[in-house]
Amino acid sequence: MKFTLEMKLKDIMATNPKTVEVMQELGLHCLGCPFSVNETLLNAAQMHKLDPEKLLEAVNSVEQGEMSEAAKAKAQPKGAILQMDKKTYAIAPHIPAGVATPEILRKIADVAEKYNAAAIKVTSAQRIAIVGLAPEIIPNAWEDLGMDPGHAVGLCVRSVKVCPGITFCKRGLQETLGIGMEIDKRYHGMSLPAKFKIGIAGCPNKCTDSMNVDLGIMGTSKGYHVYVGGNGGVKPRRGDLLLENLQSDQLVPVIDAVMDYFKENAKPQERIGRLIDRVGLEELQKATQNVVNA
């Protein structure tokens, strides 16, 4: 069977496990990641700055066979992210809304100490990463933690950042933590055409970057504003105001409508902001306004 650039990495590896070895040699070190293996061979070449045709030629030249033990050892462990040294990994347990109990903090500290982690890092996604772990001990580290991995990579809802809102912050105008927990439970890890980040702020200070993420919610004295299409990166984009002064029970139906529209209309790996640039905001506004009026 001849592989093509449009085939997903997981399908190539399933058809001929021995292809993992040549892909690793060319720099694809994330072949154990459940998110990256859903990318196409072309996506992988672009992400790793490889010549797509040379990568395709190399994969097609591999004889049929099983993956070697050395290749298995190099494959990225589940729920882990390869670090700069290309040898160790970081894991980031999921902490919904960034609210951690003393028990969670003790677990993370105990695991980091037990497995000689290089560092413990608070991430921008309100998680606590354990950095610098050897690949062979990562399954044991996850077992000791007893926590789910945070979705830090892949074409899905990556993070739901939530500010303290009226629960703790003196500037809060609307409740955020309960809503944030509900949104995190409903959407975190949801598969989408491209990565997707959500930020929920309880006041116009927007401490969770609600205008700079794919979907942002901002509390006002009258309700919640919803923004769509923000992103950082090399081509940053400010979010567009979608709807104003929604009530808390309207947020999930509106977000559902945004997700459905995004799934139906976006190209592969097209962020929602680029989709809006391409087709305009009007149809998305109509779809979400219809939900509010229903």
Automatic annotation (TrEMBL):
Pfam families on file: DUF1858, NIR_SIR, NIR_SIR_ferr
Domain Nitrite/Sulfite reductase ferredoxin-like: 83-145
Keyword set includes Kinase: no
InterPro entries documented for this protein: CHP03980_redox-disulphide, DUF1858, NasD-like, NiRdtase/SiRdtase_haem-b_fer, Nit/Sulf_reduc_fer-like_dom_sf, NO2/SO3_Rdtase_4Fe4S_dom, NO2/SO3_Rdtase_4Fe4S_sf, NO2/SO3_Rdtase_FeS/sirohaem_BS
Domain Nitrite/sulphite reductase 4Fe-4S span(s) in chain numbering: 156-290
Entry-linked SUPFAM superfamilies: Nitrite and sulphite reductase 4Fe-4S domain-like, Nitrite/Sulfite reductase N-terminal domain-like, SP0561-like
GO MF assignments: 4 iron, 4 sulfur cluster binding; heme binding; metal ion binding; oxidoreductase activity
Domain of life: Bacteria
Keyword Cytoplasm attached: no
Residue intervals of the DUF1858 domain: 4-56
Entry keyword set: 4Fe-4S, Heme, Iron, Iron-sulfur, Metal-binding, Oxidoreductase
Name this polypeptide is given: Hydrid cluster protein-associated redox disulfide domain protein
Species this protein is from: Desulfitobacterium dehalogenans (strain ATCC 51507 / DSM 9161 / JW/IU-DC1)
